[in-house]
Amino acid sequence: MPEMPEVQGLVDFLRTKLLPADAPPAVVSDVEVLSFSVLKTAGVPVEELRGQPVQGVERQGKFIILSAGGVHLVMHLAKAGWLRWSDALKPGRLRPGKGAMALRVRFAADAAGKEPGFDLTEAGTRKSLAVYLVRNLEEVPGIARLGPEALDVGFDDFAALLSGHSGQVKGLLRDQSVIAGIGNAYSDEILHAARLSPFANAAKLDADDAGRLFVAMRTTLEEAIATASGRPASALKDSKRKALRVHARTGEPCPVCGDTVREVSFADSSLQYCPTCQTGGRILADRRMSKLQK
After folding, report:
1. Is the pLDDT score of 290 beyond 90?
2. Is the domain of 135 the same as that of 213?
3. What angle do CA 48, 49, 51 make, to 5 degrees?
4. pLDDT of residue 293 exceeding 70
5. Closest to 174 in 3D by CA, of 193, 152, 147
6. What's the farthest any 2 CA atoms get from each other in the chain?
7. Would you say residue 289 has pLDDT above 80?
8. Are 187 and 101 part of one and the same domain?
9. Mean of pLDDT values over 217-231
10. pLDDT of residue 269
11. What is the pLDDT of residues 110-157, one digit of tens each?
12. CATH code of 45's domain
């Protein structure tokens, strides 16, 4: 799932293409809805974007927001979605179907007659990629529920969030209504850097634990954003994979201590951790109850 660093990388990339410093902003020429389920709103027709110059490209949490003509095209890539850019789309509209294509946004032709644009695609059969067309961002339920951005939270506020959450610390980091922008992969990375078990009770962390977690959160995200910065959309996934230390590294040696990275699997996701670095050498039970093996 794309998280804050990759979404920010996509936003930065789109800005260079749609809001160039040395040319007028790009103009939306067409929006094609290619998947019946992708568009979650009906109040604003897609036709209102046509002919409108791009006014801004922003990020909130894991949402990409493209604004044009007073309308916001809000995109959430969910677990298996992605944005694919083309400097020259083929002419002609596509036919809606059941494949990976969900949405196409086409922009007015450049001086060479080429029409740039991007596609939203989603792998697999479980379709959760979501697009909203609204005049007010608060009309998007996910944005209305967002907590503060992870990199905007000060330590005192962060400590208060921890003390007020009786659940597991990994769940807190992933809860977009508590802290916005962190998902499964970076929560694993943050907890590894902080040397904390993913199943530690957030409210029971002491001051030292909270301090390490706060620093790890900021450092991990800032480094990931720096890695994503300036990369084309097509390179962001690979750069993320290469930088991960424990997430999706099951069976590999921990880069810090050399112990084997372990996994806990759930019905539709998994987490990875290092026993030596994070749980005092104990192996976490690989079951939904998430209790330590005795």
Report:
1. no
2. no
3. 100
4. no
5. 147
6. 68
7. no
8. no
9. 94
10. 86
11. 888 999 999 999 988 778 999 999 999 999 999 999 999 999 999 999
12. 3.20.190.10
| CB-count exposure of residue 277 (10 Å: 0-12, 13-18, 19+) | buried
Query: In this structure, which amino acid lies at residue 58?
Result: E
Mean pLDDT of the chain: 94
Mark which of 114, 144, 174 sits at the end of a domain.
Answer: 144
Strand runs labelled E in the chain: 28-33, 54-60, 63-68, 71-76, 81-86, 101-107, 117-122, 130-134, 262-265, 270-273
Given a contact cutoff of 8 angstroms between Cβ atoms, the answer to whether 72 and 133 are in contact is yes
Query: In the listed set 113, 144, 175, which residue is the last one of a domain according to the structure?
Result: 144
The neighbouring-strand residues paired with 121 are 82, 101
| Pairing, β 130-134 against β 71-76 | antiparallel
Q: Domain range for residue 77?
A: 4-144
| Domain count within the chain | 2
pLDDT higher than 80, residue 286: no
- The predicted structure's pLDDT at residue 99: 81
Q: Are 11 and 133 within one domain?
A: yes
Whether residue 254 contacts residue 281, with contact meaning beta carbons closer than 8 Å, is answered with no
Is the separation of the CB atoms in 28 and 104 below 8 Å?
no
pLDDT of residue 127: 82
- Mean pLDDT to the nearest integer, 263-267: 90
User: Mind listing the pLDDT tens digit for each residue in 10-26?
Assistant: 999 999 999 999 999 99
**Token reading at 207:** 């001051």
The residue type found at 268 is D
Give dist(CA 208, CA 197) in Å, integer: 14
Q: Identify which of 125, 133, 116, 212 has the alpha carbon closest to the alpha carbon of residue 169.
A: 212
Please tell me whether residues 123 and 12 are part of one structural domain: yes
